[in-house]
Design brief:
heterodimer, A: 11 helices, 0% strand, B: 2 helices
Chain lengths: 197, 60
């Protein structure tokens, strides 16, 4: 449990205690202490709860468990634990190249100023779609996957720049004129296909 | 029921929902927090802060 969650839980208990104290009084108090307690119980604590709760929920929405909790994502989750490490998701997840608890978000957010916000907006659209109609089949990205997301981690790494395949094409990779996925297999559904007879 | 008690009910419901949605990272937690927890807390605030009518001023 994160520090935010523990703080929030403590705050909820304090807030409930304050509400109980205020609500037990027969009349709305007029002393400064009563006014302050009432203000904290009904305005101050709830405001902090909304801010902390929103932060916590947005952080939780980045977790791998959150993404894979929808059944539509099950085949994509299988690709993380697939045996073939040449497959990009499997290699990244099993070799700890990305944080395991944020596997989906690490690659599928945009590393721009408002990338996190855009990812959340798209996530909200996915939720709406999940509850109103079926998702497109097969599930597709909104835009082609950009090298920027890969280079956020790999650019500048010696293992990346010195490797045999990259040394001649670094400029093209950086200006997006060729895609990382032209050479690196990124078939999330490979694991599911292999299971199907 | 007094306005203060109504505000207390809303804030209690909101607080309990916020606490309940802490446990698991799941879309339902997100939806309950956003659609029930936050509105209940905001409603409690609004009810508590809504200006009181002064005695004798109504219908003057």
């Amino acid at each position: 449990m994160s520090v935010t969650a523990i703080s929030l839980l403590l705050l909820v208990f304090v807030s409930l205690a304050a509400i109980w104290v205020v609500a037990r009084r027969p009349q709305r108090g007029s002393s400064p202490t009563a006014i302050l307690l009432g203000f904290l119980a009904f305005v101050g604590f709830p405001a902090v709860m909304i801010v902390l709760g929103t932060t916590h929920q947005l952080e939780q929405a980045k977790s791998t468990d959150f993404c894979l909790s929808c059944h539509e994502m099950t085949p994509y989750g299988k690709s993380l634990v697939f045996e073939d490490l040449d497959l990009l998701p499997a290699g990244h997840f099993q070799n700890n190249r990305i944080p395991r608890d944020r596997a989906c978000y690490s690659c599928h957010t945009s590393y721009t100023m408002f990338g996190g916000v855009q990812a959340k907006m798209k996530g909200a659209q996915h939720l709406l779609r999940h509850f109103t109609r079926d998702p497109s089949e097969p599930i597709a990205l909104y835009d082609p996957f950009m090298n920027r997301e890969c280079l956020h981690c790999h650019d500048g790494a010696r293992s990346f720049e010195d490797s045999f395949g990259h040394d001649g094409v670094l400029a093209e990779l950086r200006d997006e004129s060729i895609s990382c996925l032209d050479c690196h297999e990124n078939d999330h559904l490979a694991a599911t296909r292999e299971e199907t007879p | 029921m007094t306005r203060r008690n109504l505000a207390a009910i809303c804030t209690t419901v909101g607080s309990v929902v916020v606490a309940a949605t802490l446990w698991r990272p799941h879309p339902w937690s997100f939806i309950f927090f956003l659609m029930l927890g936050v509105p209940a807390l905001l409603l409690g605030m609004v009810i508590y802060l809504w200006p009181r009518r002064r005695k004798g001023s109504a219908g003057a």
